[in-house]
Write a structure and sequence with these properties.
alpha/beta, 2 domains, eight-stranded parallel barrel, 10 helices, binds coenzyme A, binds magnesium ion
């Protein structure tokens, strides 16, 4: 399992069958969903099934996350009460509007962990940070809110509903500017906060070529993982977000070259100029490849 999860697979938490299937697969992170994929009438059952799955799970496998319900409803506390004691790797907060929401969730987790004699801070947080109109103005506010926060992701579906859009696509089938903006702000907000930027899901789960292209686009821009909604998407995402041997070799060369020339701000390699941004880039590749990066 890489240290930075590449694939984050959503599973409706009211489906034992899908949970079993997800656990048997290759996803780096599995998100047991208590929110949008579970009907209100099934929330209670879903909490029980999620807690049981967490208790039974093999802890050397995928990171196990629970997506709870948003803070503006009345379900969040019951969600946390049901699952925190079963020790998920973390909880994913949907419809997060700013760092303030993370601080609120942090306090709720402090209380729940305290009540269960779990070390405070154990449960990590990730957030879906572009799902309301106000959330777009909060993407720069996730810095230094909580050490629990490890990832930010974005979604266009709820945002388009919130904005009253009839579609998230332009007439030519491309994602409209508003959602591209949300995506870029999420990327920059995550990197500014020092957490993983996770690209949104690709909804058409039978279109492997389309998914590959979408992964490639996200990766080139700086996302280091991607949400999935179907097990068939997982191997494609894992492959796309694994640095290739050639990339790793090149990154090693760059890091070694700078280490061998400690005073140098810029160095030539294979006829190309390298400076500090290339070193940072190379270190990121090695980190994603799970290698120890010196210095
Ligand atoms: N996790 C685990 N297993 C899944 C799965 C998922 N996310 N999605 C599908 N499967 C399983 C199916 O149960 C089926 O299992 P089977 O072969 O044992 O019957 C198999 O994979 C093939 O599924 P398929 O028939 O191709 O899809 P489907 O029509 O059953 O399901 C969805 C389509 C969209 C309903 C389903 O993929 C799903 O529930 N995705 C997650 C939705 C979600 O969590 N959304 C919230 C975030 S936006
Ligand atoms: Mg949603």
């Amino acid at each position: 399992m890489p240290r930075i999860p590449r694939s984050w697979l959503f599973v409706p938490a009211d489906s034992e069958k899908k949970i079993a299937k997800a656990l048997a697969g290759e996803a780096d992170a599995i998100i047991l969903d208590l929110e949008d994929s579970v009907a209100d009438a099934n929330k209670r059952d879903a909490r029980k099934i999620a807690a049981a799955a967490l208790r039974d799970a093999d802890r050397n496998g995928a990171q196990l996350w629970v997506r709870i319900n948003p803070l503006d409803g009345r379900l969040t506390e019951s969600d946390l009460r049901a699952v925190v004691s079963a020790r998920p790797y973390g909880v994913m907060l949907p419809k997060s509007e700013s760092g303030k929401d993370i601080a609120t969730l942090r306090r709720m987790l402090d209380a729940e962990e305290g009540a269960n004699r779990i070390r405070i801070g154990t449960t990590k947080i990730s957030a879906v940070a572009t799902e309301t109109a106000a959330s777009l103005f909060g993407l720069g506010s996730y810095t230094d809110v909580s050490k629990r926060l490890v990832a930010l992701t974005w979604g266009a579906e709820d945002l388009s509903a919130a904005l009253g859009a009839s579609s998230k696509f332009d007439a030519d089938g491309e994602l409209s500017f508003t959602y591209k903006l949300a995506r870029s702000l999420c990327l920059a907000g995550a990197v500014a906060a020092g957490v993983q930027p996770v690209d949104s899901l690709f909804a058409d789960f039978r279109d492997d070529e389309g998914l590959r292209a979408d992964c490639d686009k996200g990766r080139r821009e700086g996302f280091t993982g991607k949400l999935a909604i179907h097990p068939a998407q997982v191997p494609i995402i894992n492959a796309a977000f694994t640095p290739s041997e050639a990339e790793i070799d090149h990154a090693r060369q760059v890091v070694e070259l700078f280490a061998a020339n400690p005073g140098a701000g810029t160095i030539g390699l294979d006829g190309k100029m390298l400076d500090r941004p290339h070193l940072l880039q190379a270190r990121r590749v090695l980190e994603r490849a799970g290698e120890d990066v010196p210095g």
